[in-house]
Every structure is written in structure tokens, then in C-alpha cells.
Specification:
With 299 residues, this protein is of the alpha/beta class. Helix content is 52%, strand content 13%. It starts with a strand and ends in an 8-residue tail after the last helix.
């Protein structure tokens, strides 16, 4: 059976790494990005360039989209010269972006009208997971479509879960971001708490990360912070955007999320201070300001 021809739209930190893994897995790859220069590395490795999302859709069996927010996805998929313009029956669109569940449902319904499958498939695992092909992928949409594109998703991720109907993948990702934000804020608080109260935060992390506090954040982020590295990773501005989706969805369903509301304020504060391009773990800067204590870097 011939391998699927794949198109990839959105070549940021995550998208480029995920597209590279698709290419390495032997798929024919066509790419498009608003900033064309971001595709250069992939083109050198054998990817083809499309002049628009519509042109890309005409040439492939599967379109992967990975951009920043709901309006961008709607424009790229449903807009002028978008994927829907070049769509053909049997095409499958996989949206890896983190957007509003309602946006995913709108895309599903519009594409269904023209014989195109659509899956919302946001990811978790950060830049390291994207590079290593070990992402967690949460999928909403028709299971038959998921089965058809499973080889593509397996090139990008290690854990792929069909969560449910269209939009369910985005709900799962929003739930994931509740936990991620809580971990980033808790990590920041515990590091500043430990240091200012007189304990070595490096030793504190060593002591607690194999106990009940163990989590991905404590395995990955403290070493970066101790080295003075607050570069992304996953940008704080995107964390703020994701939490805005969470809070909007919570309001829609009359759900109280007090802890997440506080986390959202902290990440919004980072953006307001011009720190949105830092890693989400750099939320520690907000705790440093509030506590009048700066985390010491370690050689």
C-alpha cells in the first residue's frame, strides 16, 4: 500500500520538528508557511513547497495544520485560498493547533459538506517531545479517519488517544493546559520558597521529584532555570492564549476554576511585561517580583 502524501502548514518550533519527523518516516511532504524562509531546512531534506494552503491541499492526501490560534486556523482552512478551496473528496485534515472546541466543530461541519474528514488533534510534550517524536496526541473526530492517518500520527507522537467526537481533542488539550499551568506556577513557587526560606532549591528538587510531587515539569524544567535558560520551549504567550481558551470554555459551561484563573493572571502579566516570548517556566519571574527574590543560577 502506497504511503500517504502529507502536507504540513505551520512551521514554528513545534510544527517544523513534527514535519521533519514525518519526512524522516518516509512520507512525501509538501509544506506551506506564511514566512517562507522557515521552510528552507525541510526543503533541503526533500520536502516540496506549495504556494498556498489551497495548492497544498490539491497535492496531498492528508493536511496537518499547526498554527497559533483559532482565527488563524479558520483562515487557513476555510478562508480565501484556504485548504477548503483545494480540497478533494477523501482528504483528511489534522489540526494540531490548540484552539477553541467550537472552532474545531465548525471546521468539521464545513469540511464534511465537501467530503473532507477533519480531526482536531492537539499535542502535548513541548519542543523536546516534538523533536523526539514522543508527543502525546489527543484526537477528536471520526474514528475511521483516525485509523487512516494513524501512520502519520505515529511519526509525530508516542501516545495517541481517540478522546471522542469533534472538539473532544481540544477539550482534552484544555484540560491538559490546566495541569501544565498549575505545574509551572507550583514549580516557580516552590523554588523561590525553598531558596528564600534557606534551603538549596537544587537539593529540594532532588528530594521531592521521586515522591508524590513527581511530574514531567520537575523532570525537565528546573535544570533549565538553574542554568539561567528561560528561552522557549513553549512560549508564555501561548500558555496565556491556551488559558484564555480554558477560561472562555469554563464560562460557557458555568464551571468554576479558581486556581486556573490565578495562573491565567500570572501568564497574562508576563505578556503585559513583554515576556511572552520566554518559556512558560519563566513564570517564575512573576513570583520573583512578588517575593523580592531572584532564583540563583547554578554552574
Amino acid at each position: 500500500m502506497a504511503k500517504l502524501k502529507v502536507g504540513y502548514i505551520g512551521l514554528g518550533v513545534m510544527g517544523k520538528a513534527m514535519a521533519r519527523n514525518i519526512l524522516r518516516s518516509g512520507f512525501s511532504l509538501t509544506v506551506w508557511n506564511r514566512t517562507a524562509a522557515k521552510a528552507d531546512e525541510l526543503l533541503e531534506f526533500g520536502a516540496k513547497w506549495a504556494e498556498s494552503p489551497a495548492e497544498l491541499a490539491k497535492a496531498v492526501d492528508v493536511v496537518c495544520v499547526n498554527v497559533s490560534d483559532t482565527s488563524d486556523v479558520l483562515d487557513i482552512v476555510l478562508g480565501e485560498n484556504g485548504v477548503i478551496v483545494g480540497a478533494h473528496e477523501g482528504l483528511i485534515v489534522i489540526d494540531h493547533s490548540t484552539i477553541k472546541p467550537a472552532g474545531s466543530r465548525e471546521i468539521y461541519e464545513r469540511l464534511k459538506e465537501v467530503g473532507v474528514w477533519s480531526l482536531d488533534a492537539p499535542v502535548s510534550g513541548g519542543d523536546i517531545g516534538a523533536q523526539q517524536g514522543t508527543l502525546t496526541i489527543m484526537v477528536g473526530g471520526d474514528f475511521d479517519a483516525l485509523e487512516k492517518v494513524m501512520p502519520v500520527l505515529e511519526a509525530e507522537g508516542k501516545k495517541i488517544t481517540h478522546v471522542g467526537a469533534p472538539g473532544a481533542g481540544q477539550i482534552a488539550k484544555a484540560a491538559n493546559q490546566i495541569m501544565v499551568a498549575a505545574q509551572m506556577v507550583a514549580e516557580a513557587e516552590l523554588l523561590i520558597f525553598a531558596q528564600k526560606a534557606g534551603a538549596d532549591p537544587v537539593k529540594v528538587i532532588e528530594a521531592i521529584k521521586s515522591g508524590a510531587a513527581q511530574c514531567w515539569t520537575l523532570d525537565v524544567k528546573p535544570s533549565r532555570l538553574f542554568a539561567g535558560n528561560r528561552k522557549p520551549g513553549f512560549k508564555a504567550s501561548l500558555q496565556a492564549k491556551d488559558l484564555a481558551i480554558v477560561m472562555e470554555t469554563a464560562r460557557e459551561y458555568l464551571i468554576s476554576l479558581p486556581g486556573t484563573a490565578v495562573a491565567a493572571q500570572l501568564f497574562n502579566g508576563m505578556v503585559a511585561l513583554g515576556e511572552g516570548d520566554l518559556d512558560n517556566s519563566a513564570v517564575i519571574g512573576m513570583i520573583e517580583r512578588l517575593s523580592n527574590e531572584t532564583l540563583e543560577t547554578k554552574a
